[in-house]
Design goal:
The protein has no helices and nine strands. It is mostly beta strands. It has a nine-stranded antiparallel β-sheet with strand order 1-2-3-4-5-6-7-8-9, with no helix packed on it. The protein is globular. It starts with a strand and ends in a 5-residue tail after the last strand.
Length: 165
């Protein structure tokens, strides 16, 4: 298991087609192996902007984390993350999306770009629980030398909890 990040967003309650949020992001060293984690606690800013029109969402999620405590035997963390996305959802709850996950490690001077040129998901119900079930083509475009480049498949199952009003 790798490290965990937690983002908290403050956002206006009443929005129309332009949605935004900003807040802190926290890095928690939960890695179960020294090769899988930073062994550092970190904090930084995060923000999301989203334009919603009809069935389409276009936006950007971005954050930056600096390490503030942790193991002296591991390098400091200074990392920027950006995730641009576009998604279209049908009236039958199918979603078609494109996104990329871009990370720049300022400490090591390394950039990683992973692209999902097509992601398809469907909102389904399993008993009372709603789930988003989907898959995507996942292509690593650029990465450090130890991470293999190329394409593969990604499958996701995400529980959906509607907001209480």
């Amino acid at each position: 298991m790798s490290d965990s990040t937690e983002s908290l967003f403050l956002s206006p309650v009443h929005t129309k087609s332009f949605i935004w949020g900003t807040g802190p992001i926290f890095l928690v060293p939960t890695g179960t192996n020294g090769l899988l984690g930073t062994r550092k606690f970190g904090v930084g800013p995060t923000a999301v902007v989203l334009k919603h029109k009809g069935h389409t969402n276009i936006g950007l999620l971005a954050s930056h984390i600096w390490s503030v405590a942790g193991s002296d035997s591991h390098p400091q963390v200074s990392q920027t993350y950006a995730q641009p996305f576009v998604a279209y959802t049908t009236t039958k709850a199918w979603t078609y999306a494109m996104t990329s996950y871009d990370t720049y490690n300022w400490t090591a001077g390394r950039w990683t770009a992973i692209v999902n040129p097509i992601r398809v998901s469907k909102l389904v119900k399993l008993g009372p629980q709603k789930l988003s079930v989907g898959g995507a083509l996942r292509c690593t475009v650029t990465s450090p030398q130890y991470q293999q480049k190329g394409c593969g498949l990604e499958f996701t199952v995400t529980p959906v909890y509607p907001a209480k009003r």
